[in-house]
Amino acid sequence: LGTLLAAEVAAEMQAPRLLLWQPVLSGERHLTQFLRLRVAAGMGKGSAKETAGDLRSRLAQGEVLEIAGYELAPALAESIAARKLPGILERLQEPALAVLEVGATEEPSAATMRMLEAPGLDTGSQRARAVVGAPFWTLQEITLAPALIAATEGLFRP
What is the model's pTM? Predict the structure, then answer.
């Protein structure tokens, strides 16, 4: 989700460069994944079965939900869902844009490549790169991503 926030700030400031790590392209999809954390947690406890749709309805009725120890207010959920990275990036005027992803291969995701090739995105200089590594953002334990760090350092070397 930090990608969407960083891109918003970069667009407001008209930042000349922007580096995105493992970008969330759609706030709507990210919110759905977050809601699924609660759905999955409920399955293991034998509590009443909830769906992501049920949770969205409760948010729409003004209910604050507790998910994975965090409170999700309806206004925040709505704000997250409304954000789309391609639309935000279109507001940037010719930035140097770099996208780094971590995965099983050294190929950027198809979704990222489609986003960078979208007709409305007019970037002066853009590149996407993937490095092999563990999806550290989904792991419970602290995990380093040395290939991601090295790729990031490489972008900042003259």
Answer: 0.81
